[in-house]
Design goal:
Blueprint: E1 5-10, H1 14-27, E2 31-36, H2 39-48, E3 53-56, E4 59-60, E5 63-64, H3 65-75, E6 81-84, H4 90-98, E7 103-105, H5 113-172, H6 177-205
Parallel strand pairs: 1-2, 1-3, 3-6, 6-7
Antiparallel strand pairs: 4-5
Length: 207
C-alpha cells in the first residue's frame, strides 16, 4: 500500500463520514482524505484531489453510488470503488460487484473496511505490475523483431547474389551435365535458405 493513500469519501451524512475516518485511523492506515457531498464536488475531487481509492454511500439526496461509479469508470477505471452503505442488501451488493464495483462494506460492519481496502489496493498494484511486465515484454519483442529484420536483410542479400550468379552462369556459360547438377543443387539450397529466413522473421512477428 502507498505511504499515504488518498481516499475520496462520497457521503452526505457528516456522522457517517466521521465514522469512516475514525475507523481508518484506528486501523493504522496512513491516508489523506477529502469528503464530497454532491455530484459536482465528486467530479471536481476526481480531477483535483486525484484519489487512489473511493468510498461511496449508495443513496444520496440527489445522487447515488452507482452514478458516481459510472462517472469514475469513464475517466479513471483503475481506481478502486467501494460502496459503504446499510441501505442495500447482499443481493444488490453482489449485482454491483458483477457490474464492476470493487467491493461492498456494510455500515454496521466497518471493522471489515480496512481489510477490503488493503485487498483492493493490492489488486491495483498487481495489475500495474502486470502491465509494466507486459509493456517490457512488448518492448523486448519489438527489439527482437527489429533485429530479425536487420539480420534477415543482411543474410538474404548474399543469398540473392548467389542466385544471381547461378542464373548468369546458366544462361551465359554452358556447363557440362555434372556442373549443371551441382549448380541446380546449389540453387535449391539457396532458395531453401531464403525460405527459412522468411519463416524466422514471420515467427518473430507473431511472438
Amino acid at each position: 500500500m502507498e505511504e499515504h493513500l488518498k481516499i475520496l469519501i462520497l457521503e452526505d451524512n457528516p456522522s457517517d463520514a466521521d465514522l469512516l475516518v475514525r475507523e481508518l485511523k484506528k486501523s493504522g492506515v496512513k491516508f489523506l482524505f477529502e469528503i464530497a457531498l454532491t455530484r459536482t464536488a465528486f467530479e471536481n475531487a476526481l480531477e483535483q484531489f486525484l484519489p487512489n481509492l473511493i468510498l461511496s454511500d449508495f443513496n444520496l439526496p440527489a445522487f447515488d453510488g452507482l452514478s458516481a461509479f459510472r462517472i469514475k469508470q469513464e475517466k479513471y477505471p483503475e481506481i478502486p470503488f467501494l460502496i459503504v452503505s446499510g441501505a442495500i442488501g447482499e443481493e444488490k451488493a453482489v449485482e454491483l460487484i458483477k457490474n464492476g464495483v470493487t467491493d461492498y462494506v456494510q455500515k454496521d460492519k466497518l471493522f471489515t473496511l480496512t481489510q477490503k481496502i488493503e485487498r483492493a489496493v493490492k489488486e491495483v498494484e498487481e495489475k500495474n505490475e502486470k502491465k509494466i511486465v507486459e509493456e517490457k515484454i512488448k518492448s523486448q519483442n519489438q527489439k527482437l523483431l527489429e533485429i530479425a529484420h536487420l539480420q534477415s536483410h543482411q543474410i538474404r542479400r548474399p543469398v540473392a547474389d548467389i542466385l544471381g550468379l547461378i542464373y548468369i552462369f546458366n544462361t551465359e556459360n554452358p556447363a557440362d551435365p555434372l556442373n549443371l547438377e551441382v549448380l541446380s543443387k546449389l540453387e535449391i539450397a539457396a532458395k531453401d535458405l531464403d525460405t527459412i529466413i522468411r519463416e524466422i522473421v514471420e515467427r518473430t512477428e507473431n511472438i
